[in-house]
Amino acid sequence: MASLSELPALRNYSKPFGIRFLEYIKKGKLSYKTHQAIVLIVTFLAYTCYHATRKTTSIVKSALDPQSPDVGLKFPWRMTYLSSPAEKKGFSWVLGDGWAPFNGSDGSALLGELDVAFLSVYALGMYFSGHLGDRMNLRVFLTVGMVGTGLFTSLFGVGYWAKIHSFYYFLIVQMIAGLFQSTGWPSVVAVVGNWFGKKKRGLIMGIWNAHTSVGNIAGSLIASALLSYGWGWSFVVPGLLIAFVGLLVFLFLPVSPESVGADKEEDEVGSPRKIGEGLTEPLLGSDAEIKETAVGFIEAWKIPGVAPFAFCLFFAKLVAYTFLYWLPYYISHTGILIYLFDLQF
Predict the structure, then answer these.
(1) How would you describe this protein's topology in the membrane (predicted)?
(2) Class assignment of domain 31-69+104-262+324-344?
(3) From CA 147, how far away is CA 307, in angstroms rounded?
(4) 22-40 residue pLDDT tens
(5) ∠ CA 212-174-67, rounded to 5°
(6) What is the per-residue pLDDT across 202-220, written as a single tens digit (0 to 9) for each?
(7) Running DSSP on this structure, what letter comes out for residue 1?
């Protein structure tokens, strides 16, 4: 067992390399608030990338299964739409015939099976990811999840250049990608919870949780912009992006104040305090013991507010993922676009 004199050295060794590099440049320890800012920025970017890679499938669906050359969205749509005869004014993707096996009569069903497989594994993986996250270094766990997500998101796109037309290849890749995707939410929430108290947690979470929408927007823009170069790029580029941010997580993310030796009291020296208000060593020790004890599945459901929140989130996610995965595909395969552009022109 390490002696008390060796603890500072061990603590410094456990710091992420990026934090040690910033302290080397600064020639001193980073403040508690600086650590909090790093946590917010890094976790925000991390979960933004999770949603960006998750969004690409909904954009590429209409390229994989355009149904017919008269339905979909052409590139560039303005030139094609305006130059086509009135009776053939429609929209189709660049690929025209789509991508086997999704371009057949059962293409929509196959795409639906991919979504069901992905989300089923994702939901099941959330349970195990929560357990693993409580027992592992969250920085390493999150890094592995992001790099794995990037790898299997990219492998889906590799099917474009490798001329892969096996449904089971895309199914297995999506399932494994869903498993890695499940590492994101439990990890980032746990890290943010370690750094922010109850007083400011509502405000912080309200602002920080915008990563979901930002990720969906960014994923849609990236996938749409790259689609005309080949649908494979719409998967590979977001996959490389999340893997890169995963490396930033490994280099810069401080999991908890204890892991980097950050003391909140050092930033509040000037504030008046009552006698006995400061934290003592036994209290810190007991708190560490509580954090090391993982909560079981049944115990988690017994926590007040968990069950109502779970049911509310279930119905919210039901609507959200319906729009996330199928709205772009639905719009491109109905007469809505034709009707809107007829009104415009």
Answers:
(1) Multi-pass membrane protein
(2) mainly alpha
(3) 32
(4) 999 999 889 999 999 999 9
(5) 95
(6) 778 888 989 988 999 999 9
(7) -
